[in-house]
Amino acid sequence: MNLAFRWRRPGSLIRQGRAAGKRGFLTLPFGSSKQPTGQKFQETQIFPYSREQVFDLVADIDRYSEFVPMCTESRQAGQDPAVTDRHVVQAELAVGYPPFRERYTSDVVLERPWRIVATAAPGGGIFTHMRTIWEFAKAGSSARPHSPFIQTASDSTRVSFSIEYEFASPLHAQAASLVFDTMAQKNMAAYLARCHLLYKTAKR
Q: Cis omega before residue 113 (within 30°)?
């Protein structure tokens, strides 16, 4: 997918891709350093699937290692069976590529079918701050899909993804920034491909 980018500074508009997609990196002034050390990435795309379908796919943490870029292990724990529309779980993930590899745990709030928020558990991890937000909204009939080869169906979903993070040490930042930057930029495409794999046959 070819995208035209506009780099932005804090406070400016996000750079916009072609078709319905928007994506961009922003450096954030986290921490006590005078130099910006945090990163934030945002992207929005139209998926030709229902909110419930896309939500359920993103919520299936145990399967992340099968398709999420750079994710080598994934496990979900702690779901409260008494709650239906709103679940609070933990996600234990391992990310990276040899010889670099890191593990971290996130607290995940799942509000079906509108929103998923994952926040890195504080203390002892590689992050001083890490938060991922997925939002799912019904796409209007005038919305354009990410690709001119995909027709926008009435049950299409506008998927918004954002992640912001800061590593706990400059050493971690140097070693891990490439991994997390790559994950962020390839993330949306990976989930869309997974939707095609799981749901495209069922839509025919």
A: yes
